[in-house]
Amino acid sequence: MPTARPPAAPVARRGLRFHPAQAIFGLFALAALAGTGLLALPIAKTGPGGAAWHEALFTSVSAVAVTGHVVVDTPTYWTPFGQVVILVLIQLGGLGVMTFASFVGLVVVRKMSFSSRLYTAAETKALGLDDVRSLVIGVVRVSLLAEAVVAIILAVQFAVGHGYAPGEAIWLGVFHGISSFNNAGFALFSDSMIGFTDDPVISLTLCASIILGGLGFPVIFELARRFGRPLLWSMNTRLVLAFTVALLLVGTVVITALEWSNPATLGALPWPDRILAGFFQSVQTRTAGFNSVNIGELNGATLLGMDVLMFIGGGPAGTAGGIKVTTFGVLMFILIAEIRGDGVVNVFGKRLSRAVHRQAISVVLASVALVTVSTMTIMLISEEDLDRVLFETISAFSTVGLSTGITASLPVPAQLVLVLLMFLGRLGPITFATALALRQRSLLYQLPKERPIIG
Question: DSSP letters along 234-246, please?
């Protein structure tokens, strides 16, 4: 009589020492710690000695989380070596640690292990394992091509339009090209982009780079294949494009209208520059972090509107942060379906999976809880008011990097709260929770149904 074979292990767990979410979490942590060590070296900092540990840690996490929050002035505090470290961390964080490692493996040994494919699929939100190899190559190609084009345009404008020496113009173009496409927001100017508020070439080039990076790689790849066939676009692509356009327009109108007469921001500019600056700042709230006006001088109503836009963020599986426009879009369609009394939720001619309802609600509730607790904690530690602290925490969680100017003056414990927010915001609250779970539970029973009173 043949011996009974033990049940096969699930495919997702064969040969794996860690859950994919655990591996991604650990690799991002290692990258941040490695960056901290490099930035703490005396060669990375101008002047005598090295950077303080909390300054190096904050900057490293901000870079690898493609946020752009700073506690020191990037162009004056860090040496060229330190700036290169920051740039490498931005590129690493934008591509994804696992995606970068898989690409290096493909270049060196020309193959990917099963675990590498599984981890990379989890990081890039791929739907299967068969296309991971081409996905990794595609992500790297798109990133490098977009960054190169943006870098060339910026370098030419810095040299021709603003008189920078060729070598410096090239470095500025490369740095801001990588920083913008990865939605990082790090700038090599002490006032970010305020000096170029009236320059449409630099402003619109940065905006185009940020929007493209914020769409997410799945949307970019689908547009490349089916640009002229919108009827074949997936629900994800339609949600991202529709809500990206809508939120950019709403953000531009809200920011421009509320700040139109504010002499400390848009009020001092000619009307064409006001519209340009309003659009530029609307794009930045999509998780980029550059600013062409003084954020600390914005009206309270403007800050609140930007809080909402930052919290929503950009597209999934890309360089943007926030809860993602797809999550927001799904909740909007659920609300519409409930108001209309529909039994199912339909999105652009297709029925929405019920599992997505639960995922969207979980992401939003976890994100709100994280931002709320962090805001309360920082307010207890510091003496700052709610408007500014809430703006900082949402900006950190959504990996935006915009600041009202209080980040550097916060106590170190409050800055460490922002460090944690940036890290969790890049990985996502649900990914973080999954990484901490030792194993998944499979319930073998179901409890009786009952409906509580809602509302």
Answer: -HHHHHHHHHHHH
